[in-house]
Amino acid sequence: MGTPLDPTRDGLTVAPGAGSAAAPRAGTPAAAAPELPWPRPAQAWYAVGLFALALMFNFLDRGVIGLLVAPIKRDLHLSDAAMGMLMGPAFVIFYLLLGLPIARLVDSKSRRAIIGVGIAIWSLMTALCGLAQTFWLFFLCRIGVGVGEACNGPATFSMIADMFPKERLARAIATMNFGFVAGSGIATIIGGTIILFVSKTPVVHLPLVGAVHPWQVTFFAVGLPGVILALLFTTVLEPQRRGRMTAGRADLAPGKALPIREVLRFLRENRSTYAPMFVGLAFQQVVAFGIINWAPTVFERTYHWTIPQYAFTSGVLQLLLWPIGLIPGSMLAEWLAKRGHDDANLRVTLIALAAFTPFGIIFALMPTGALAMACLATTYLITSLSIGPQNAALQVITPNEMRGQVTALFLFIFNVFGTGLAPFIVGLITDYVVGSEAKIAYSIAITAAITGPLACLMIWSGMKSYARSVARARAWT
Description:
By secondary structure, the chain is mainly α. It is built from 20 helices and two strands.
């Protein structure tokens, strides 16, 4: 069959006969064209392996701050609301500024290069967090860490959707998300180990920098290795683009992105599909990231666990439980699809979210730390069922020409309303509603009780429209 990968041609491929007819609108099925051969399995799965490592470093670099709340607050004299700003809004500001321009490059230029450069930047910015001596310097460094979502997410999902058939896409994405498991599980354990080690290390005074506290060493340790991974992306070949609506367009030469107005028109015409997905999954992230960022502090303040104790216990449970559901959840989506359910990916997402929400509410209200951890562990297992289908759901209904931009919009929405606002919302509720840092558990419960059901309602409302979009996408080449 030969290799279908062409590292020298990263743009949209113009089909034979381009220019002989008027350009169709975005949303108009292209004329039938010979099906492109898929990448060799070894090439595709090698890329998935590197995507998984990138995801691991992404979650390691952006998530380690949740384990360091107490020492950062102490040494920089911050409130819970200020910590929420560092964990959330600071992280998404880069996305606000440059997410769309980078996404347009994803849809027309070398995606592997975008990923590699992004990894190098966010890794270096994570390390620089270790030099921060004030809130505002820390804030600026966290903005730089946000480059990970802007570069990694859209480019990775665009590439992986061009490497695997739609019926195997959820499984490939689920496999890639073993990197998420490692990033959140192993990183938690490593983070706890580093914290335990550096807690016995005295403050070091460096010329020009000043005092370097033990927690700052953690950012050096987790950030710098990512630079090596960035170099490995030079060994990944760029797959040919497929799933295009505009294969006969003479005005879309290789390397030229689809006009923004056409992307916006496509989204407007399909708003009944995209809006419920975007808003529902944004609400979901408010629950998820509120818990992820503040759970270590809950166990420290409510159950009097040490951060290393929480990190080791939670990390081991993540490593044990998340993998159990990753592949079965994708297989369930495949099983439903074979039985005629075009909404299979979104249906699995809704089932998992509905089961997750009650445990997200009650975990921090348990009378003992052991029961709280048992509830938290249950959320790990349930969440893993939907990771593959949830991410595949968007790629299946989005044409290649705008896949990076639509994925970027999706990530922008749930990062702003989820990753960005969730820790800040919990911090605000603690400071101004609950009124006591010792009762942060109630802040998480309040947040989950409101946003969890809203997420379920929104996703359910869009399932019929989503199924119709899946059926229409079969006409794309």
